[in-house]
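HTH cro/C1-type domain-containing protein structure dump, as promised
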Amino acid sequence: MNAPTDVQIIEKNGQPEYAVIPYEDYIALLHSQNSNEFIPHEVVELSLSTGGNMIAAWRKFKTISQTELADKLGISQSAVAQMERPGYNPRSDTLKRIAIALDISPEQLF
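structure tokens r here:
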């Protein structure tokens, strides 16, 4: 799908609320999506329960222990625990290493 086709805009209170597209276009959009660009709902819920820490959320979603993640990263379990604290702000190279260890894209850690 290169350009919008038959799009129906449904308004609520004078503002656009929904865009309805043909089913074929919807299917094409689904198949064009890169699954590494999305975050599963379960990860979002886990993130909320961990104070917003996506590293902890993804680790728990993937059922990996802190020790296992530490081994993959070549660091200590206590270093992983520090990374999972709310407010932790890793460097981009650290995010890349964590993403590789969790088999996700770095963008999914934001």
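The helical segments are 23-32, 41-49, 54-61, 66-73, 77-83, 92-102.
lmk if u need the other ones
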